[in-house]
Design brief:
Elements lengths: L14 H5 L5 H11 L4 E7 L5 H13 L4 E5 L10 H12 L4 H11 L6 E5 L2 H7 L1 H11 L3 E3 L9 H9 L3 E3 L1 E2 L5 H10 L4 E4 L15 H8 L9 E4 L5 H8 L4 E4 L1 H12 L4 H16 L6
Parallel strand pairs: 1-2, 1-9, 2-3, 3-4, 4-5, 6-7, 7-8, 8-9
Helix pairs in contact: 3-5, 3-13, 5-7, 6-7, 12-13
């Protein structure tokens, strides 16, 4: 054990042999959706909030409700760009004794129960402390399909992208609304699986207004190299109306704070696991009803 992590030895130079190359589950999902003229809903949940048993029960329910890919946030004491709702859920999970190895075991058990893509939203500082090759290998072993590294600049992402690609997984980086066009296209080209486009400047949080992303997506698509990476848009999306507005332009809508906020209220009210999962599933079903092509 080092820095609180039990390290699973998976030398990254062996990952290509172990897991192969080519399209992974995330690529397959977007290819199928595009072929059918459909778009994707990508909910976010915090691993271990309110406990790992709830996360395990919730994941297949999200797929049944219409989600194509789920972002699983790995708790971190200083989350990047996350608003107070998601940050509080991460702090709560850590205070309750979140254990990353127990999370890996949970994902391994749940993987066979859902066809959803599973993407780890994880601070790169966690990956660095665990060991890049070890972390990517462990994630691949238990059934994650890709990563979002919210705090990894594209200029410093080369090694991580190489290791992730060798494992046959996706690596998504973030583009802000105020990112210069040339840099935004560089980030999009560096991303695999999908690129994460922020609908707004600032931190995450449910909003009542509908984000306007048409211009951002159009500028991103104008690329001499023919950038065709799927675009998933998040930050402040919390209704079927907002999902529809986003997926008129982007390939996917990401919903995080609106889900975690509802879970936090239920935790406060003492709602049991079964009812919590049922209510969240119903909400995700409502959101999926807003998907363009759904």
């Amino acid at each position: 054990m080092r820095n609180g992590f039990v390290r699973a030895r998976r030398p990254y130079h062996r990952l290509r042999v172990m897991f192969g190359m080519g399209m992974n589950r995330i690529d397959d999902i977007f290819a199928e959706l595009r072929g059918n003229g459909k778009t994707a809903l990508m909910p976010f949940v915090t691993a271990g909030y309110p406990d790992l048993e709830t996360t395990a029960t919730l994941l297949p329910a999200l797929g049944d409700a219409g989600a194509s890919i789920c972002e699983i946030g790995i708790p971190f004491s200083d989350p990047i760009a996350d608003g107070p709702v998601i940050a509080a859920s991460m702090h709560d999970a850590l205070e309750r004794g979140f254990d990353i190895e127990k999370m890996f075991a949970m994902i391994g058990e749940v993987r066979s129960t859902t066809s959803m893509g599973l993407v780890a939203m994880v601070s790169y500082s966690i990956v660095h402390r665990y060991g890049l090759g070890d972390f990517v290998g462990r994630c691949a072993e238990v059934g994650f399909d890709g990563f979002i590294f919210p705090d990894l600049p594209v200029e410093e992402s080369g090694e991580a992208r190489e290791v992730v690609a060798a494992a046959g997984m996706s690596c998504s980086l973030l583009i802000a609304p105020n990112t210069a066009d040339d840099r935004a296209r560089e980030i999009a080209r560096a991303s695999t699986g999908f690129v994460y486009l922020l609908a707004r400047v600032g931190i995450t949080g449910e909003r009542s207004d509908v984000p306007e992303i048409g211009g951002l997506v159009e500028r991103l698509r104008v690329d001499e190299g023919g950038m065709d990476t799927p675009i998933a848009c998040g930050f402040g999306i919390g209704s079927a109306e907002a999902v529809r507005a986003v997926t008129q332009h982007a390939d996917a809508a990401i919903v995080g704070s609106a889900i975690v906020k509802r879970m936090a209220v239920m935790v406060e009210d003492g709602v049991g696991r079964e009812e919590m999962v049922e209510r969240v599933g119903e909400f995700v079903g409502e959101l999926a009803g807003g998907l363009v092509g759904g």
